[in-house]
Prior knowledge:
This protein is of the alpha/beta class. It contains twelve helices and twelve strands. The chain has a seven-stranded parallel beta sheet with strand order 3-2-1-4-6-7-11, sandwiched between helices. The protein has a three-stranded mixed beta sheet with strand order 5-9-12.
Amino acid sequence: MSQTTAKSLSGHTALVTGGSRGLGLLMADRLAARGCTVIIAARDADELASAQKKLLHRRPGVAVHTSVCDVRDQEAVHAMFRTAHDTCGGPDIVIANAGIIQVAPLEAVGAKEFRDAMDTMFMGAVHTCLEALPYLRASERGGRLAVISSVGGLLGVPHLLPYASAKAAGGILAEGLHAEVAASGVSVTAVYPGLMRTGSHLQAEFGGSRSKEFGWFSAVAGAPLVSMNAQRAAERIVNAVIRRRTRLVLTPLARAADLAHGLAPAVTTRLNGVVARMLPQAAPGRPRLRRGAEVEPPEGAVSSRFQTWGSALNERAADAYNQRDT
Length: 326
């Protein structure tokens, strides 16, 4: 990276929701590398403190602030932006990234899980975007806004249905906002990442046959041929936001899925049905969902050996990207 590029955002203020771990933390790091004053927002104060420490260690001299905020609460989001503006100016760049992942067959989820996903990833993005826009419109540098959707938002991924539904809504929100606010000089980027090695399997929630669901998800999310290096993903996302791109789909597999669904939606949907039959069947009853950190398969199990082989990189990412419980 050239010195000019590294300093090209000096004087800007950037706010990243869901910035305490995983992709959010990495995007905050890439913004800090370009000279931004960075504000990371999340619900957990301890996670935020740990993330701030990691960023300051990696980027000494860069201003990194934290904001405890639940994006499901619009009043809290309003207060977050007001405080951010009063403290740091701007913001000039906002990335709506807060999210949750629920991995379970349909039989193991109900309306509550869909509401939880929509409240966090869709309404959370709505609150973030609506509260950010007055500040972005006022930015002398021309505001930039991004909404992080997912390849799951491009087609209905089996065993991720609440997540995919909310991410699809978020993608539509971003693309609609781009059209609505373009005349004001604010750019909006819709981002559709594929699988990334962020260590998110430890924070994801699993239902049904929880150990088996954890096994396949953690293995696939960490497989090098299927998933993407999270640092490279964060770099590409930040570049797309800086360049005011309208849409970014990451990973060859995600682009192929997007193209296939656009050209042959019925065939793609039928193939998804084949994939669904290959995934673990629901356990009897409907036990509550649990975080991946609580449901790792027992040592010696076949799923445990497969998970260990498939997600070795993902396990290392969990340490690097603040996914372990503090």
